[in-house]
Amino acid sequence: MTDKDSSQKEPAAAAESAEAALKTIIDGFLHFHREVFPQQEELFKKLATAQTPRAMFITCADSRIVPELITHSSPGDLFVTRNVGNVVPPYGQMNGGVSTAIEYAVLALGVHHIIVCGHSDCGAMRAVLNPDTLEKMPTVKAWLRHAEVAKTVVHDNCNCATEAESMQVLTEENVIAQLQHLRTHPSVASRMASGQLFIHGWIYSIETSEIRAYDAERDCFLPLDGTLPTPSATPKGRF
Ligand SMILES: [Zn+2]
Q1: What is the distance in A from the centroid of ligand 1 to the CA of 6?
Q2: Is 112 found in the same domain as 28?
Q3: How far away, in angstroms, is 82 Cα from ligand 1 center?
Q4: In what order do the strands lie in the sheet with 211-215?
Q5: How far is the CA of 85 from the centre of ligand 1 (A)?
Q6: What are residue 59's DSSP bridge partners?
Q7: Total domain count for the chain?
Q8: CA dihedral for 186, 188, 189, 190, sign (positive or negative)
Q9: Ligand 1 centre and the CA of 58: distance in Å?
Q10: For strand 78-83 and strand 55-60, is the pairing parallel, antiparallel, or unpaired?
Q11: CA distances from 47 to 38, 76, 199 (A)
Q12: What protein residues have CB closer than 5 angstroms to ion ligand 1?
């Protein structure tokens, strides 16, 4: 979490660049409202009163990850929850936004898939590796304790030679850890047991746009390249 922000600029320059950033966002909205929306009015009319998303997508808040873009999805297709580090707190530890969204997606919307998607160059993973950088961010530090399990697994089992290698292994282990946390949620556990819900662990590369998916049977990440069988993080249903 070492990214510089505009608060480090001179106040006048910061105000100017903040104003320009907001203008760009509003101009973008106006373009959408006037040009894009009319072309898809039928879709939005259909979505006005109901949603039946294909999947729940849990990913990092990082601005470079755009779930709808990388899955070529439309409005209404994905039920998205984002947070720093694509974290899923274990059930019962925190009745916050992620747990609420999971319960709603599974029980109210009846989604059949939950995808936990980490990514390359994740600031949250870098912070987990270098906790000193979080000294002035107590809330981020507290949140990322849910990734502590991944850090310990890497620390105890991996002789990573470089920070890049540590980052890659930690990012993978974090996705696996969050999938395990996901399974502690009763709604998820129950629907998985009956074979109605499938969970997936992905890692998206910002530089290449490739995705690697966790395969529970082979216990490794494999390229998501359309070859069958698709890597799956879901054990067989028991009922
Ligand atoms: Zn991230």
Answers
A1: 20
A2: no
A3: 10
A4: 78-83, 55-60, 113-119, 198-204, 211-215, 220-223
A5: 5
A6: 82, 117
A7: 2
A8: positive
A9: 11
A10: parallel
A11: 14, 7, 26
A12: 60, 62, 122, 124
Q: Which domain holds residue 34?
A: 1-39
Q: What is the CATH number of the domain that holds 127?
A: 3.40.1050.10
The pTM assigned to this predicted structure is 0.93
Six-digit token string for 114: 């939950």
Q: Are residues 114 and 6 in the same domain?
A: no
* Cβ-contact 204, 119 below 8 angstroms: yes
Pairwise CA distance, residues 199 & 21, whole Å = 37
**How many Å lie between the centroid of ligand 1 and the Cα of residue 128?**
11
pLDDT in tens, 11-48: 889 998 999 999 999 999 999 999 999 999 999 999 99
Do 62 and 15 share a structural domain? no
- Provide the pLDDT for residue 1: 56
pLDDT tens digits, residue range 84-120?
A: 999 999 998 878 999 999 999 999 999 999 999 999 9
CB within 8 A of 86, min separation 6: which ones?
58, 59, 60, 116, 117, 118, 119, 124, 174, 175, 178
